[in-house]
Here is the input.
Amino acid sequence: MRIISFAWTTPAVMALRKTCTRRDWADRYALSWHAGDYAAAYNQLPRVGGKQFGIVRLTKRPYKELTSKMPADDYENEGFKWMAEQNLLIQGKTPLDFCHAWINAGEELWVVRFEIITVTSTTLNYPLWPSLWPDVFTRELNKKER
Here is the structure.
């Protein structure tokens, strides 16, 4: 199975609040991906010690788009809204500032849309924010703590 490394947006994927990523992939590589393909979700590339934390499935074939043409909905789809709610920074910037800089750069990147199939590991030492899991999981965890 191929991998996608989410790096600084890993917490948003683990929170089930990221369904899109933009990549500076070579055309040949990007075109080898298809809707329905599965990928192991990593927090970093394995060669630098990354660990798998889940599995995602592509919902569309990747396509090129200028960041300046990014739809407004992708602020949330990229996980930026959730990261802002958690007061997380992306490369030292607020998610909104990072997103604006990205839009202003007008880079042509591959858009990869996916759904999260499973989160298979919680061993990445990310804090468990209250909004991390849907209410049903939170209720089950609370029952076990009583």
